[in-house]
Design a protein that fits this description.
Structural class: mainly alpha
Strand order of the largest sheet: 2-4-3
Largest sheet: 3 strands, parallel
Number of strands: 5
Strand content: under 5%
Shape: globular
Distance between the termini: 64 Å
Helix content: 55-70%
């Protein structure tokens, strides 16, 4: 067992830019791709993930200090320190059971594929820690290790079904065939669905409003670099950076916004040959059977709607932290809320009017979720010794799926209201699944409103 854990630790230490392409190389060879072609696909995917991670990091490094300055200008001081996903990951990998969840993820996926309960093959093994985190949270709150493992299994099932339901929409958004996203952050679309359906009835929200459509209305101001510059400058002024600092922040955000779509093309170059090979293999072995390749969310990062929404919501996030009663979290490391932006993108097909509105409505969920989880994550940190607490409490302001994780944990604690809430949540998930099956792909939506 210790040898197996050492092997897993070694592979994880290679990093996702090597780990995921290695899996893609193996799958490509299984799908009978020529070695040279499979190797090039894997290398290109590694370059794409590395490039995207660098630009996302660059964006975060530019925006986060402005967010901190903006928060300081408000004079607020809240007790729970936001460490973001890195703190949560450190705690999770320090848990003795964490590595077991590789087997859980692979086992559930293969069983569902064998029984034709999913079309998605999740190769995003890097994010296995997210399932382990859910299990650890549920275990800590409920005291039941069995409940923790069941929660992780349920999460794997939901992620695979989200991979199925969003695949054709993701293919339309990215242009990459037979590829989908199996990240828990997509689950934010579940609670957003009722408001999105209400917006279906309002003419303003039925106008095509992705960045491409906006070019016809606002011209140069809809260009990625120009939008990034304007948003960055305004954020700089909000942080009291002054003219020079604000202009520099504007250029930094503009740079990232310009680079995202360039790097995203590399995902297509890498994954399209693999998708073709997988499709041919499935046609030969299983009549009329498709298999989707499930990957991490950065394959969507070339869509500028994600970044416009996420950065516009930064001051909203801080504003809510100031005024919401009972909130104990000042969003810092998790200030760029990918969960709201990515879930909103998939649900609305990239409609910026809807994405920003949904973000404003649902941001409090993450602050209250992080407040609830602060003593839990702090307790786990003390137990594992993975994070130096320095006498304070820690949390994660934009944790993915806070509603799912908290409801399951409290339901496992035999909290009647949580049990009812979890049943309602799963019912809403089924509702979302049926809704997305009927919803036109993003490029075909809102066309009746375009003049």
């Amino acid at each position: 067992m210790e040898i197996f854990q050492s092997v897993i630790d070694y592979i994880l230490n290679l990093g996702s830019a090597i780990f995921v392409p290695l899996i893609i190389l193996i799958i490509g060879l299984i799908a009978r791709m020529p070695l040279k072609k499979a190797f090039m696909s894997a290398i290109t995917l590694g370059v794409a993930f590395t490039g995207m991670s660098m630009v996302i990091g660059f964006m975060s490094d530019a925006v986060s200090p402005a967010s901190v300055a903006m928060a300081k200008n408000t004079g607020i001081s809240l007790p729970a320190l936001d460490l973001g996903w890195t703190g949560a990951a450190s705690i999770t990998w320090s848990w003795s059971y964490a590595f077991v969840f590789f087997a859980v993820v692979l086992g559930v996926n293969f069983i569902m594929l064998l029984l034709n309960l999913t079309k998605t093959l999740n190769v995003d093994m890097w994010n296995v820690w997210g399932k382990a985190l859910t299990a650890y949270l549920v275990y800590f709150i409920s005291g039941s290790l069995v409940a923790g493992f069941i929660a992780a299994v349920v999460q794997v099932v939901l992620e695979l079904k989200m991979g199925d339901m969003f695949q054709r929409h993701i293919q339309d958004l990215t242009g990459i065939p037979l590829v989908t996203v199996t990240h828990l952050m997509n689950i934010s679309a579940v609670l957003m669905l009722p408001v999105n359906i209400v917006m279906d009835k309002i003419p303003f929200f039925n106008k095509k409003a992705d960045t491409s459509a906006l070019k016809a209305k606002i011209g140069i101001f809809s260009e990625n670099s120009v939008m990034g510059f304007i948003i960055g400058v305004l954020l700089g002024f909000g942080a009291a950076y002054g003219i020079s600092g604000s202009l520099n922040l504007g250029i930094q955000v503009a740079t990232a916004m310009a680079l995202f779509p360039m790097i995203s093309k590399m995902f297509m170059q890498s994954l399209s040959p693999l998708a073709d090979a997988m499709s041919e293999m499935m046609k030969k072995r299983f009549k009329d059977r498709e298999v989707y390749i499930g990957l991490d969310w950065p394959i969507l990062a070339g869509r500028s709607e994600i970044w416009v929404t996420a950065i516009i919501l930064v001051p909203v996030f801080i504003g809510y932290a100031m005024i919401l009663p009972g909130n104990q979290v000042l969003p810092l490391a998790g200030i760029i809320n990918y969960s709201i932006a990515v879930g909103g993108l998939l649900l609305t097909g990239g409609n910026l009017y809807r994405m920003i509105t949904l973000g404003v409505i649902y941001t409090p969920l993450y602050l209250y979720g992080a407040t609830y989880l602060a003593p839990v994550l702090t307790g786990l940190a003390k137990k594992t010794g993975a994070v130096d607490l320095k006498g304070g409490s820690i949390t994660w302001s934009s944790i993915e799926g806070p509603e799912f994780r908290i409801l399951f944990a409290e339901a496992a604690n035999l909290n009647v209201m949580a049990i009812i809430g979890f049943i309602i949540f799963i019912s809403m998930f089924v509702w979302l699944y049926k809704y997305m099956a009927k919803e036109p792909v993003p490029s075909a939506r809102y066309e009746e409103s375009v003049k």
